[in-house]
Structures are given as structure tokens and as C-alpha cells.
Amino acid sequence: xxxxxxxxxxxxxxxxxxxxxxxxxxxxxxxxxxxxxxxxxxxxxxxxxxxxxxxxxxxxxxxxxxxxxxxxxxxxxxxxxxxxxxxxxxxxxxxxxxxxxxxxxxxxxxxxxxxxxxxxxxxxxxxxxxxxxxxxxxxxxxxxxxxxxxx
Length: 151
Description:
Blueprint: H1 2-18, H2 22-27, E1 36-45, E2 50-61, E3 64-71, E4 74-87, E5 93-103, H3 111-120, E6 123-130, E7 133-138, E8 143-145
Helix pairs in contact: 1-3
């Protein structure tokens, strides 16, 4: 049962990571100032009542998005990787993930499954704009959007 909780957490966390970046990477071709976002992600296993919290920093580049995941509880843990837009067929964005650097001194963490998922699977997102609001629809049906400025 533990894997099911982690699998659902993986999809949710993956979508959260794309909240601020997917539409920005694909919406304009013109050069932009890099966009940065910092957020915190977590995993919780209901069965064992264990939790893991990580700090994530994402930065857009012209060729994709760089992500850095660190642990506030273990400064030795770091995972850095790059999301690359593969194609935009049928209105969907397709992202591949390539690891750049990984240091995990402790094995068996819940985040290991998340990182394995990112490396070995393609993540699909569908960007939309409804009433001027940018939204991002993920594979699991989650809808994400930025807060409107000034509203």
C-alpha cells in the first residue's frame, strides 16, 4: 500500500513543479528574463506515518527548466536536473527530465520513487487560458494556475 501513496504523491508533486514554469517556457519564443520560483514539496506515507519535506527551486532557461531539490533536514541531499520540452503535439507539452547531479547519502526515501519516475517517464501537461487566467492541466486531472496579479 505504501507504493500507491507514493505514486499519487509523485504525480501531485510533479504537477506542482510545473505550476509556474510550463506555460512560461512554451508561451513565448522571444528572449525573457529567467523566471525563478521556490517552493516546498512533501511526501507523507499514511501507513507508516512518515513524512519527508524538501525545498525545490526552479529556474527557466531558453532550452528548458532547471530544478534543484534539497532537504532542509539533511544538507547532504541534493538533486539537480533539467526539464526539457520535447514537443507540443495536440496542444500538450511533453517534458523529459535529465539528471545533472544527485547526492543521496541515505537510501530508501520516498523521494527516490519520485526521482525515478521523473527520469524514466515523460510528463505531459496541457496549458490553457480561460478568461485571461493561465491554467495547466495535468495527467491526473489536477488543474493548476497562477494567482492573478492585482486581483
